[in-house]
Amino acid sequence: MRGQNAAAKPFNVSQIEGEIHEAVLHRPPHIQAVEPMPRAPSVPDYVNHREDATEIGKLSAEAIVREYEVTAKEIEAVGEFVKEMAQRCEQLTTSTSAMLKDIRTTAARYRKEGKRIFNEIESCSSATEEVRQLCETFRDRVAVKSAEGAP
Questions:
Q1: S-S: 57 plus which of 53, 68, 128, 144, CB 3.0-4.6 Å?
Q2: Mean pLDDT by 10-residue block, N- to C-terminus, for the chain (151 residues)?
Q3: Res 29: pLDDT
């Protein structure tokens, strides 16, 4: 339906540029705070720049010493981990010592109980043997008296 309306007006580029220019001028500027670039951490206390070092030399040395410092901190972190592991080992050693003491105590109780049962069985065996012999003796006496009294 657009084509049925009046004839299309020619496109005026300079008019469009002017309108854009006016819009930009009347629009308040968009100001965004720029955060400062994060500064590289200063060099560790154990190093100092030489007076005769060039700027490039200083920057290179700073970069390298920072890398070494980061690595040194990682090494210290490993040391803390090893320290924690040693403390755990000490705790295990302490609990293991207590367990071994309990094991020895339990083994001693088992030996004592084994000895008690051993002595009880042998005592019963001796009593049984004594009763058996008494029964045989009694049977033999009864048999002899029966033989004497028999016509």
A1: 53
A2: 57 77 73 67 86 93 94 96 95 92 96 96 93 93 80 60
A3: 67
CA distances from 24 to 34, 68, 101, 143, 151 (A): 22, 52, 88, 143, 156
Rounded Cα gap, residues 88 and 71, in angstroms: 26
**CA dist 21 → 29, 81, 116 (Å):** 13, 65, 112
**DSSP labels, 69-137:** HHHHHHHHHHHHHHHHHHHHHHHHHHHHHHHHHHHHHHHHHHHHHHHHHHHHHHHHHHHHHHHHHHHHH
Amino acid at 67: E
